[in-house]
Specification:
66 residues, four-stranded antiparallel beta sheet, 2 helices, 26% helix
């Protein structure tokens, strides 16, 4: 198990193990699937399109945290 991760069981009837990772993702070992959300893909471009400035180094910092 990865340091800082938490294992839980999910499902009704057939239970599955879900590993919550400290990298803000989840691992479903039985399905060999990684789940990730809130990746901020296109965030800087979207904000710039709305007339808001978001420096690229801020976006890089956000991505490095995930």
């Amino acid at each position: 198990m990865i340091r800082g991760s938490v294992e839980i069981e999910i499902g009704v009837g057939r239970k599955e193990r879900l590993v919550l990772l400290p990298q803000l993702a989840a691992w479903l070992p039985a399905r060999r699937m990684v789940l990730a959300a809130d990746l901020h893909l296109g965030k800087a471009e979207t904000m710039q399109g709305d007339g808001l400035h978001m420096p690229r180094n801020v976006l890089k910092g956000l991505m490095d945290e995930t």
